[in-house]
Amino acid sequence: MILPFLGDLSELGLAETAGVIFLLLTLAIEIGYRLGRRSVVKFPAKRGEGSGLATLTTGMLGLLAFTLSLSISFAQNRYEARRGLVVAEANAIGTAWLRTQLIDGDEGPMIAAKIEDYAKVRLDFTIAGADAEVPALVARTNALQNDIWRSTQVVARRTPNPVTAALVTALNDMFDISAAQHFAYESSVPTELMLALFSGALLTIGALGYQFGVAGERQLVVSSLLLLMWSGGMLLIVDLSQPRMGAIRVDVAPLVRTIQGFGSG
How far is residue 22's CA from residue 2's CA, in Å, rounded to a whole number? Predict the structure, then answer.
């Protein structure tokens, strides 16, 4: 039941996701508080046994903090991978374009023009704001790769020399990086880790509410601040893990500068 819910949650916008997370954590602490108050009523002898409960709650908070930091690390690593591949792809496209300038005849400018179109498609792929836009951009990328490769084959077979060999190598690198970028954009924080974080947060915050209920103190201000902090941390993970929905996006300046460099070439 929870796994499909997490999938639906990732499709929401950031504001909606933050609201849902905060609401569920608030519900968990309230349920925990009411259970704690009921426990005190039914078992009055437990009223003075708060020290052991506080120790257990502190341990749960520590484990939850570890899970949160681990999840943020996973999400950040995937973000860094995407960002690094943007730079690598821009460099590969620029290198391939420059090597077309060394090709004699009409094929050089023709291949260069196709690489320019290819760079613009790759930029559109990187800045696409919705998953629905991706299949068409991937199809366009594949079509341009095949077109560029066919044109390069003609040149390489007609004049096999170090210049054409260097162009072939540059194109291979350019194509390989696009495949790596596709994978990086599809890779996110493992669902199992998100499930552990989400479930652990609900249980831990519920236990904290239970402790407040046993003590008879709600601590509204402090607990609200804590829920805001946990919601913010979990929202950060969702933002980093979803490259097309969040506010934290990969900087596309390297690709933009590469495209601008075509005009000055």
Answer: 17
